[in-house]
Specification:
Helix content is 42%, strand content 14%. The chain is of the alpha/beta class. Strands 1, 2, 3, 4, 5, 6, 7 and 8 form an 8-stranded mixed beta sheet that branches. The longest helix is centred in the middle third of the chain and has 27 residues.
């Protein structure tokens, strides 16, 4: 397999449109500074960053890949589905994103209400239309209000499962998410299966619904995970993806930005798949 670094293609990143710390412009500028040649912007349940990111990528000479990360359910648990090479204007995809954003906003408000009821008083963080409010945004608000010394502390005290501000996601079936991604001309990739209680079962469930590939290379995957998921991908003739899952400076994975890439030969396969899917859906 060709060295991952040769492609310089990072296929997983986030902006302030969801739970990232950088605006789309700042993210692209940071990618260019770190020598990233291709970057997929994959915010949670929204494509709101695409226009600014695409324009910024042109300015900085970075290849922009329109992406999204959809919160869904497979094998009875929460998983994330990456859509790569999607048409941001596809109404089917946008309808799903709007539905997910409404659920996220309801969840966001419920988290705040539960914290208020527990005596943790602070202002509800403002949200912008088309964006996806999340627990990291709530954690930053708790830190700003002096209710926690860091985002990690905010999660540990208030936002993790079993804590007073925790509210579970209302998830979309993985098959629905895959259909939306593929209907928008994109390829459907199961994100970081090593983070799920049973990644193999999640892959199999998603594969039965038409999954295109697996994110094998991720900062939270050690070499054993990488080789395991590469083997599964090859067994089923699936695509392989990889990226830093970058959320901005100060995040636990920040140092992987500019170091974690999709393997060059696998990126070529992904490019061909994205081009083929896009041409078929535009007919």
């Amino acid at each position: 397999m060709t060295d991952s670094a040769e492609s310089r293609a990072d296929l997983h990143s986030h902006t302030t449109a969801s739970d990232g710390r950088l605006t789309p412009y700042q993210l692209i500028a940071a990618a260019a500074q770190r020598g990233i040649r291709f970057l997929a912007v994959t915010d949670h349940d929204t494509t709101a960053a695409h226009d600014e990111a695409r324009k910024s990528a042109s300015e900085f000479g970075v290849g922009f890949i329109a992406g999204v990360e959809i919160t869904c359910e497979a094998a009875g648990g929460e998983v994330h589905l990456l859509g790569l090479g999607v048409d941001s204007a596809c109404e089917r995809l946008q309808q799903l994103c709007r539905e997910m954003q409404v659920r996220r906003l309801d969840r966001f408000k419920e988290m705040h209400a539960r914290l208020q009821a527990a005596g943790v008083t602070f202002d509800l963080p403002p949200t912008q239309p088309g964006t996806s409010p999340s627990r990291p945004v709530m954690a930053r608000a708790l830190v700003a209000a002096g209710r926690a010394g860091s985002e990690d502390e905010a999660f540990a005290r208030y936002l993790r499962k079993g804590r007073p501000g925790y509210v579970p996601h209302r998830r979309e079936p993985v098959g629905t998410a895959i259909e939306a991604v593929q209907g928008a001309g994109g390829v459907a990739i199961l994100a970081h299966p090593g983070l799920y209680p049973d990644g193999d079962a999640a892959i199999e469930d998603a594969r039965r619904h038409g999954l295109d590939g697996i994110e094998c290379l991720h900062p939270d995957h050690d070499e054993i995970h990488v080789q395991r998921y590469m083997k599964i991908a090859r067994k089923h003739g699936m695509l392989v993806s990889g990226g830093a899952d970058y959320h901005g400076p100060g995040h636990a994975r920040s140092h992987f930005f500019g170091k974690r890439f999709c393997p060059a030969d696998e990126f070529i396969r992904l490019q061909m798949a994205m081009a083929g899917r896009s041409s078929r859906t535009s007919l």
